[in-house]
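Let us work through a complete example step by step.
Step 1: write down the sequence.
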Amino acid sequence: MATEQMSLDQIEILANEALVGAGTLPESAKSVSKAVRSAERDGIPSHGMLYVPIYCEHVKCGKVDGSAVPELIQPRQSAIKVDAKTGFAHPAIDAGFNELIPLVKSNGCAGLTIFNSYNCGVLGYHVERLAEADIIGIGFTNSPASIAPVGGKKPVIGTNPFALAVPDSAGGAAFVLDQSASVVAKSEIMMRAREGKSIPEGWALDPEGQSTTDPEIALKGSMAPSGGYKGFGIGLLVEVMAAALSGAVLGIQASPFSGTTGGPPRTGQCFIAFDPEAYSGAEFYERISALVDAIQSQDGSRLPGERRKKNRQRIELEGVEVSQSLIEKIRSFCV
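Step 2: predict the structure and record it as tokens.
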């Protein structure tokens, strides 16, 4: 397979041009292309350049409204709601964060929900931005149903990730935990289906609830919950926070993130944020430092998100290899 080495700047520029060419407002395209760059930088190609053609196709078919402008609503002092207007999640999250961060700084804690939304990409990317503002960020996002309850066959909840970003004392994140309710993200199975590769045993189930290694059959069946009933329980928690609390649709009502049919998914996100200074103050950072040391001092152990951090150091310098066929497909959307 022919590939081309691309810098992160080139990736962001190309993604931005394609999104605008497909019909996305420049400000929204800028927000999404930054997240694409971040995914590639962290070594998560399934949410990087591979997703750009999907984003563009969804703008073209109306699954995403590229011209949508998020509407911010503040019903209570520490409560923020954003109507994404069936547009991209990223600019809606940006609009919410612009209000959330100062609210947390003044009140100690605050919550943000987003509805009429869409796939937000890597959830950890968003909560890490809160940690960089010296805030603890907890995020939830629901998705179209793909996980059946333990013992069942029919999907009820999506892969439904949650993420936690904990600030350090130097304007960064001590660690970022980002995990889904499923064994792997659904995008990993979609990527292998496009590449014609099999998936490992235990990732997904066929329509009859049996394990399968065929990604095409997996996409017709359901995702395997991580840790069985515990994974389903996490997904249920996320569904409550990101859908029921936000006013977004449930996973069983959402149209697929893949394909071009079904209209806007109208899924949701939820973010809860705390300012450590309002609670334990300087002791917070002392305890986080001790916790991190207790993990890193053990041979072979690593913090959540540590692999992504290592990828950053290398990829910032080297860039990434992108298949020429993917680049050509993305360029086809550019004006």
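Step 3: interpret the result. The chain has a mean pLDDT of 96.
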